[in-house]
């Protein structure tokens, strides 16, 4: 069964801009017909121009839609790579603890972060010390001991203890927000290949106009006014360099999105042009080429005092289960992998 689709159906969504454009013209084809003026070439010119405008606007609409979709996917990838966002923070107000949305934390506020929680702001530690996981900022999977006076960053994890931070970088001023902004802006940067494609498109436009003018002149001199208009418009439509404007930015967007899935952040779209010519790459080892996770490979204990190995490991893991320290987690994971039951030390 053949389903007939009305002409222009695919661009009905942009009828309003076209109608506005047409309404500001001094004389329309309808007015010409109403006055009894037999100017078929003018009428066809307006119909052809309207069709051309529809086509161009449709391509622009598709381009913007594809770019917006790709950028939205990249933003989601960035969010997934960074992990769950920090929504609340505990501040000290008039000597009392108060939970507030992180957006309401101001510079100079004192923020309390407990063991196992993420740091919501940038700032120095004014009280306490802790092992901090800064892998979100530094890329290093190991932990760093931070004490009073040391600077910590939002997105880092407090592995043990309790710290009090003076808020210095909040919201958009935090280092994590700036990193996210750099990654997001990378998809909109003009790489050299994109500038080259823009220049090619810029050269094609006058060439296409000249070709359309020659086609128009050829048919016009033959006395075929209608053919002159329609064929010249056909040249403009077919030779429109729209693909140059769509393909390059989309390729950059897709490349950045694919990199994020592999935990590779690109600061600039120009990187993709340099990669094929790259002969040597230097990698940071820990946390990049290796997992950077601590894992016990063997256990040594006094067999005269430990009669039952499984019972000993079960008790050890139940104690370590109460801690967020990386060493504790690695011991617990090892015992679980051996299939030994772990009972809570609190029960």
Q: Mind explaining what this structure looks like?
A:
It is a multi-pass membrane protein. With 347 residues, the chain is α+β, with helices and mostly antiparallel strands. It has three domains: 13-80 and 189-249, no CATH class; 88-176, Distorted Sandwich (Calcium-transporting ATPase, cytoplasmic transduction domain A), CATH 2.70.150; 294-347, Calcium-transporting ATPase, cytoplasmic domain N (3-Layer(aba) Sandwich). It is 49% helix and 11% strand. The strands form two sheets. A six-stranded antiparallel β-sheet has the order 2-1-3-9-4-7, with no helix packed on it. Strands 6-5-8 form a three-stranded antiparallel β-sheet, with no helix packed on it. The N and C termini lie far apart (71 Å).
> What's the average pLDDT?
73
Relative helix content: 40-55%
- Per DSSP, what share of the residues sits in E-state strands of 2 or more residues? 5-15%
Calculate Rg over CA atoms.
33 Å
Task: List the uncertain runs.
Answer: 1-51
Overall geometry? elongated
Tally of contiguous helical segments = 12
Report strand order across the widest sheet. 2-1-3-9-4-7
Alpha-beta classification: alpha+beta
| Number of beta-strand segments | 9
Tally of structural domains: 3
Q: Could you provide a short overview of the structure?
A:
The protein has 347 residues and is an alpha+beta fold. The chain has twelve helices and nine strands. Pfam families: E1-E2_ATPase.
């Amino acid at each position: 069964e053949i389903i007939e689709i009305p002409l222009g159906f695919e661009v009905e969504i942009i009828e309003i801009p076209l109608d506005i454009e047409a309404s500001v013209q001094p004389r329309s084809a309808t007015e010409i017909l109403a006055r009894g003026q037999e100017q078929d070439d003018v009428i066809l010119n307006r119909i052809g121009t309207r069709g051309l405008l529809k086509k161009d606007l449709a391509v622009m609409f598709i381009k913007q839609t594809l770019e917006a979709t790709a950028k939205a996917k990249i933003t989601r990838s960035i969010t997934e790579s960074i992990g769950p966002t920090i929504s609340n923070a505990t501040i000290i107000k008039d000597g009392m603890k108060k939970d507030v949305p992180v957006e309401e934390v101001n510079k100079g506020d004192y923020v309390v972060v407990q063991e196992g929680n993420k740091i919501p702001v940038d700032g120095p530690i004014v009280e306490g010390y802790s092992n901090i996981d800064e892998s979100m900022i530094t890329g290093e999977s190991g932990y760093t001991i931070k004490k009073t006076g040391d600077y910590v960053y939002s997105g880092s994890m407090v592995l043990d203890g309790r710290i009090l931070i003076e808020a210095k970088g909040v919201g958009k001023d935090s280092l994590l927000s700036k990193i996210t902004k750099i990654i997001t802006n990378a998809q909109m940067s003009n790489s050299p290949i994109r500038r080259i494609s823009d220049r090619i498109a810029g050269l094609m436009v006058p060439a296409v106009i000249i070709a359309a003018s020659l086609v128009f002149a050829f048919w016009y001199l033959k006395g075929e006014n209608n053919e002159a208009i329609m064929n010249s418009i056909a040249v403009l439509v077919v030779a429109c360099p729209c693909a140059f404007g769509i393909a390059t930015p989309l390729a950059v967007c897709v490349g950045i999105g694919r990199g994020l899935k592999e935990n590779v952040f690109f600061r600039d779209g120009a990187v993709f042009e340099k990669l094929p010519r790259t002969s040597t790459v230097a990698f940071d080892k820990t946390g990049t080429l290796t997992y950077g996770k601590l894992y016990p490979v063997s256990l040594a204990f006094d067999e005269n005092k430990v009669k039952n190995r499984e019972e000993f490991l079960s008790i050890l893991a139940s104690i370590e289960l109460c801690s967020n320290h990386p060493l504790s987690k690695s011991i617990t994971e090892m015992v679980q992998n051996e299939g030994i039951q772990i009972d809570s030390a609190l029960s």
